[in-house]
């Protein structure tokens, strides 16, 4: 039995240029907010595990509770600097470098950036954000240890439950036409992946 965890990452609230850098639809902030609120309403006891890059403090002044009113643990990202971190902590979010949990015999490590699990960590599965919709890397195809990307651009700006993620076993992609989750390798259409330009920032 795994924890009641919903996973999300890289909201980049207030970061207007992220629309162009990561090819987001113009209404991505609304999609993100509506989808997270709907997930909260159907599972208010869940803990949201946010894998970092939450907001740009200078440009986003609203309370994070408007997006997710419940409990949150955040593994801080490269854009979660001092001001961002104090906003996150002022909302009562737990802020940490990494989080881990056990599923049966498997140890799952959550953090913002991808880690080489073969070298540094005694973990069977690594779940991370940071890479957005940049092309999938070779090690994401390796079955053991498994590296799974959480990307709002692949996930229609909605969180995924840890149980659903473990069933899929690889980077989850939301297929809007069938209203279903697929793994990156079983997604029925061409992946919405493109090479990022020279000014791309994770
Ligand atoms: Fe990011």
Question: How would you characterize the overall build of this protein?
Answer:
This protein is of the alpha/beta class. It has a single domain (5-183), classed as Metallo-dependent phosphatases (Purple Acid Phosphatase, chain A, domain 2), CATH 3.60.21.10. Helices cover 17% and strands 22% of the residues. The protein has helices at 18-21, 28-42, 82-90, 162-168, and strands spanning 5-8, 47-50, 72-75, 94-96, 98-103, 106-111, 125-128, 146-149, 160-161, 172-175, 180-183. The strands form 3 sheets. The chain has a 5-stranded mixed sheet with strand order 4-3-2-1-9. It has a 4-stranded mixed sheet with strand order 5-6-7-8, with no helix packed on it. Strands 10-11 form a two-stranded antiparallel ribbon. Strand 10 and strand 11 form a beta hairpin. The longest helix is centred in the first third of the chain and has 15 residues, at 28-42. The site of fe (ii) ion (FE2) has 8 residues, from loops. Fe (ii) ion is lined by residues 10, 12, 53, 77, 79, 130, 132, 202.
């Amino acid at each position: 039995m795994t924890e009641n965890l919903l996973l999300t990452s890289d909201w980049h609230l207030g970061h207007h240029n992220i629309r162009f850098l990561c090819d987001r639809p113009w209404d991505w902030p609304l999609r993100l907010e509506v989808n997270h609120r709907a997930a909260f309403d159907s599972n208010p006891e869940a803990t949201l595990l946010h894998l970092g890059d939450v907001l740009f403090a200078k440009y986003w002044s609203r309370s994070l509770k408007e997006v997710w009113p419940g409990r949150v643990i955040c593994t801080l990202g490269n854009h979660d600097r001092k001001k961002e971190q104090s906003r996150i902590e002022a909302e009562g979010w737990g802020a940490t470098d990494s989080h881990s949990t056990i599923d049966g015999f498997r140890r799952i490590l959550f953090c913002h950036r991808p880690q080489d699990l073969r070298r540094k960590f005694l973990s069977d599965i690594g779940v991370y954000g940071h890479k957005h919709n940049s092309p999938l890397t070779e090690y994401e195809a390796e079955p053991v240890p498994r590296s799974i990307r959480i990307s709002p651009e692949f996930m229609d700006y909605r969180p995924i439950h840890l149980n659903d993620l473990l069933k899929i076993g690889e980077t989850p992609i939301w297929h809007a036409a069938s209203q279903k989750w697929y793994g990156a390798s079983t997604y029925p259409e061409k992946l919405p992946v493109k090479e990022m330009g020279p000014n791309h920032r994770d």
